[in-house]
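Collaborator request, handled under Task 6.
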Amino acid sequence: MNDYTPKPEHKFTFGLWTVGNRGRDPFGDFVRPPVTPIQIVKKLSSLGAYGVNLHDNDLVPIDASPSERDSIVKEFKQALSDYNMHFVMGTTNLFFDPLFKDGAFTSNHPQVRAFTLQKCMQAIDLAAEMGAETYVFWGGREGTETDAGKDPIEALKWFRDGINFLIHYVKDQGYPLKFAFEPKPNEPRGDIYLPTVGSMLAFIETLDDPAMCGVNPEVAHENMAGLNFVHAVAQAIERGKLFHIDLNGQKFSRYDQDFRFGAEDIKGAFFLVKMLEESGYGGPRHFDAHAYRTEDEEGVWEFAKGCMRTYLILREKANRFHQDEEIQGILEQIHAWDTDLQARTSYSKENADWLRAHAFDLDALRNYGYQYEKLDQLTTELLLGIR
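Structure tokens returned to the collaborator:
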């Protein structure tokens, strides 16, 4: 039997807010007692996880004094050391406090925008102190319900100015941090600026140091807009911009559900794992999800184990895909390149003249069958366990 036991070398990570989620939603209050950050680190370590991530206020309350902050951080760093866990990614909570009701970087209120920079600098200091590799920005309330109240062109300029400020702050401090931006189309705002991976990639190219900046795409967020998450991640990989990734499950076009990884769209999850493994992506596999509201604490840890186990099962399925002779035979036919013709598609005047004059067999091209039906069925059978 295959071993699907998570190990630190698999680089599975969870946010404190994921396994620490207490089941509250817009229609019902908490259903689980709180779990402390130290308890989370200890339990995840025992389950084979690599590390944890956090928003600033997941660990340090927003109104903590400097001495309280230092005491909390010292205790947490000791727990990471004691349980051989890594702190991989930090981020700032710029959405919960009422002062962020109109956004943070894009708030119409200049004092809110200034406080946002202060809060981010403090949170970046915290992340750097604990050895984070990546700093994520999720614009949870960077948007509108009505365009009557905010100029989106001006708002994007504010957003860019704020990020540029923090880019230079990180450089001046000498922190070895990369920035990753997490797009989302809506919720909790009616519309959120820069809602997709493609729009965020375009925004990155306008920043003062695009090389320092990439994306943190999330399964649920692209699926909320009915988009193909694998294609979004492929675009990020192709541009060298996949700095971090959030894995979960999501029904298309619903609210942000954050289900256990693989709980929905198992074929999409398979192709995602296959691409991450084949592309050589070396970053963490971060599960930004939470257990069903129906669960007690034991159910939360079953959720965490399930996320990791499903990833490993799908990784093994991807290996089997490459070993399946029938599947690989079809792929060899599909990818049978005419190398001479392929060379002609690299521009030169000679190639342009040749292509203009070349007589293509259009009837043969019109009648060509790609065998995608058979290939997809074989893939389905592999995932169902009969191949």
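The cover message to the collaborator said: "The chain has a mean pLDDT of 97. Strands lie at 12-15, 51-55, 86-91, 134-138, 143-144, 178-182, 191-192, 213-215, 246-247, 285-287. Please let us know whether this matches your experimental observations."
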